[in-house]
Amino acid sequence: MSKKQEPKILSVTDLSTSEAKWVSLKKVEFVDQTGTPRSWEIAVRKTTSKSGVDAVAMGNIFVHPSKPPATMLVIQYRPPIGKYTIEWPAGLIDEHETPEEAAIREMKEETGYKGKILDSSPAVASDPGLTNATLKLVMMEVQLKEEDDIMPDQKLDEGELIERVMVPLSELYDRLMKYAAQDKYMIAGKLFYFAAGVHFAKNSGYI
Amino acid sequence: MSKKQEPKILSVTDLSTSEAKWVSLKKVEFVDQTGTPRSWEIAVRKTTSKSGVDAVAMGNIFVHPSKPPATMLVIQYRPPIGKYTIEWPAGLIDEHETPEEAAIREMKEETGYKGKILDSSPAVASDPGLTNATLKLVMMEVQLKEEDDIMPDQKLDEGELIERVMVPLSELYDRLMKYAAQDKYMIAGKLFYFAAGVHFAKNSGYI
């Protein structure tokens, strides 16, 4: 990436639903369990795949013959937040793809590596008070050879500027906390929860 | 809760940004790292607390003298998804509250229990490709007495219908997978990621 400058937000303006290309607002009218009519406002992505799931995120493990297992995180400027986020590679599922096909494709595009799928989660709700968006967490393994120690080329879409960082799995939680302590970064919630789960299992004494 | 019927969605209609009360659409104009002007469409909550964080979720541990440590999950109908979601208790932070005050309040309202805060996470991004919404994961402990085996009253807001279920921490991942296998339920992504992190730490052999 030819990085000339820090990204800068120029303006944030109201957008009408009819002008929006990617996201719309909807009003859901429903009857609740007691028979009471209610309504709820939601944000809806205009892109949806035929699979019924919007997105995939790749929980990835890099296995190297002589180094500890590690995971590749991606760092990108996220205009909704106005900061760089730390996330696992992720992307929207194309219309005619399965979630697992999207996971292989997006992993290759964002990290440069071909991963092997270990496990694909049920569809889960991204932020169920706000949106109908769903995703699958696809766990992937990348087997490295002894000589693999460089970052292969990414195949990013036009306008995508994604930095990669490799973190030993045993250091994931601590590394996220260090990023979070810097004002220019914010951790993506789902990755943080995974790391918090690992940290809890290892350190809490409860489990 | 007087549950007479299953909730039912009657209609989903376009909502204009000017009519919406809780959510709006915004267009962010920004300049990226290469100096290229770009734009991004985002969903924004109209409610924001002075703390700069939108919401809290309570990762809770119930400790009992003679039972294994457990966590209380909440099940509620979520109109954006059209299903019942399985989540940790959570809520929006009121305007003049700290995140930690909101965590204590919401925990009491949704579970009926007063929790003690063990840890409060950095603000993390709820769904950073779609929205500016942020939250903190507040880990809480509730110390039960030998005789505590019933569910105390909740203090729900009008219209809130939330069921509670207590799950031993060691069974969290398997129990979530059982819910996910039923069409009427969907797991909230962040809770799933935490459980997946615990499961990964315990079973993957990588860490």
From TrEMBL, chains A, B:
GO biological process: nucleoside phosphate metabolic process; ribose phosphate metabolic process
Gene Ontology molecular function terms on file: ADP-ribose diphosphatase activity
Top-level taxon of origin: Eukaryota
Every Nudix hydrolase domain range: 53-190
Family annotation (InterPro entries): NUDIX_hydrolase-like_dom_sf (IPR015797), NUDIX_hydrolase_CS (IPR020084), NUDIX_hydrolase_dom (IPR000086)
Keywords on record: Hydrolase
Coiled-coil regions, chain positions: none
Protein's name according to its UniProt entry: Nudix hydrolase domain-containing protein
Gene Ontology cellular component annotations, sorted alphabetically: nucleus
